[in-house]
Amino acid sequence: MRALKILALLILVAAVGGGGYWAYRTYYKPKAALPPGIIGSNGRIEANETDLSAKFAGRLVEVLVQEGDMVKTGDVVARIDTADLEAALRAAEANVRQAEKAEAEANAQITLRKSELTLADQELDRAVALIAKGNVTQQRVDQNRNQRRTAAAALEAARSRVDASREAISAARAEADRLRAQVGDGVLKSPVSGRVLYRLAEPGEVLAGGGKVLTLLDLSSVYMTLFLPTTEAGILAMGAEGRIVLDALPNRAIPANVSFISARAQFTPRQVETKSERDRMMYRIKIRVPEALVQQYLEYVKTGLTGMGYVKLDPKAAWPEWLQSDLTKPAGS
């Protein structure tokens, strides 16, 4: 009986060990040493933050999103009370219509003054012809000449009124456009596609001009920040291939490319006199995940996740197997 128990225990241990080995071989990629030409560093996933603010002072009517919600570029996310601006806009539009009517009346006056000038010219021509024959007096000719000058002056005045009316129309339309733009600014739209990080104001609050309503994460630009020593940063090329391995997904490498290399060193001693001190100079590097890949897994993207970032210092270096995954393979392969 005792022998049977020992045999059963040995079979159980073998089964557990075999299962563990199978899981190890299936799901775990051993992290071998990095080959020459590739370097790694700790980092965390980040994305650009965008503050959505009110352009002008006003009362916040509604906020249409919650923290954590996904938004797309152009989505309406909040509204500010614009009742006063809408009333002013209606008055400005009425001023535009009034100025347009004034222009129409001024154009009608031009037509009238042209007819008067034509008649004055004809009267003057007849008077000049008749005085040569002695049929009218010089006084009559002078009167016709004066009437002609009066009609010409009236025509110029009418033309000036048309110009003034057009300027008034331009001013009225500009004011209407300004108010219309302000009314439009009362509807706050997301400038980026991403996730709502913070909801900073609530309906009913009166915001000053520039008052913040939301903070958005722009998920079109997701990257990991690394710090590399000067010897590696100095030979790293912009656009170089990279890989990201998150602590939450240790066996699924994510492709990336170098999108930023700082022009200034971080953690630099005040006086750099020895090689050991120079080795302490660190440069900030960003490796960015392709936007198409981010959009494909948008619901899973989270900032703040920690992990390791790797970059190729030598373009000819080959990625080890444990830095390859279905995400790093070309489409269709």
Textual characterization of the structure:
With about 325 residues, the chain is an alpha+beta fold. It folds into 3 domains: about 30-50 and about 220-325, Elongation Factor Tu (Ef-tu), domain 3 (Beta Barrel), CATH 2.40.30.170; about 50-80 and about 185-210, OB fold (Dihydrolipoamide Acetyltransferase, E2P) (Beta Barrel), CATH 2.40.50; about 85-185, Four Helix Bundle (Hemerythrin (Met), subunit A) (Up-down Bundle), CATH 1.20.120. Helix content is about 40%, strand content about 30%. α2 packs antiparallel against α3. The protein is elongated and about 125 Å long. The two termini are about 55 Å apart.
Contiguous helical run count: 6
- Per CATH, the architecture of the largest domain is Beta Barrel
CATH class of the largest domain: Mainly Beta
Q: Work out the helicity level.
A: 40-55%
Low-confidence stretches: 7-30, 271-275
Mean pLDDT: 81
Beta-strand segment tally: 12
Give the ordered list of helices and strands. Answer: HEEEEHHEEEEHEEHEHE
Q: Which shape, going by the Cα principal axes? A: elongated
Characterize this entry briefly:
The chain has 333 residues and is of the alpha+beta class. It has helices spanning 2-27, 83-133, 138-185, 230-233, 275-279, 291-296, and strands spanning 38-53, 58-63, 70-71, 76-80, 187-189, 194-199, 206-207, 212-229, 241-246, 249-266, 282-288, 306-312.
